[in-house]
Amino acid sequence: xxxxxxxxxxxxxxxxxxxxxxxxxxxxxxxxxxxxxxxxxxxxxxxxxxxxxxxxxxxxxxxxxxxxxxxxxxxxxxxxxxxxxxxxxxxxxxxxxxxxxxxxxxxxxxxxxxxxxxxxxxxxxxxxxxxxxxxxxxxxxxxxxxxxxxxxxxxxxxxxxxxxxxxxxxxxxxxxxxxxxxxxxxxxxxxxxxxxxxxxxxxxxxxxxxxxxxxxxxxxxxxxxxxxxxxxxxxxxxxxxxxxxxxxxxxxxxxxxxxxxxx
Length: 263
Fold this sequence. Notes:
single chain; seven-stranded mixed β-sheet
């Protein structure tokens, strides 16, 4: 995290996780696996980066994801279950890709977003891109904010709307946009739209209808759009992604520090 004298902030690296008020626990990880508790369910999922041995000698989780056979041990479980994330509620599900609808490592970002938007007593416009199931969107949603939530998958948009409903925020000003992020941002530039905060969590790789997304090729153009969409004195820019083969923490820091509004 970096901070300048005008109290504008951005995140560019992972920070120590503090899961207070979050119904989640990382129980153990190692042996290319991670054992996590989401609410009342303990789940075993692959984690290729965890090359060290687990601390525990025995894994008692009966719910696990296998890339060949999919989810195992979920036959008698409900298709969805809610968990509490601070003041928010998220509905989790066993997705076909091994996800459950939540990236716990974003918890501190969600808390931080909430703090930033609530301490500013003026109307704010926040753009959340690659928004998935909407926890950053809901963290930014207050009576003083208009949040634009953009994701390319209609199923993710509907999931995010469900989370907004469960969290009691479905009456807030949130624009739900199912679109290619770069195309949407390009149109927003042409419309002379500006935002007080922008949240980005791009994938390392993604398939598009006409052109695939490759972060090593396309991140530069994305950040150029960010620079054009920010107000003169933005509240924040948050950039997160997992692309260790292409970018280091220092690379992301430099990318954010080179935004004209933060120089």
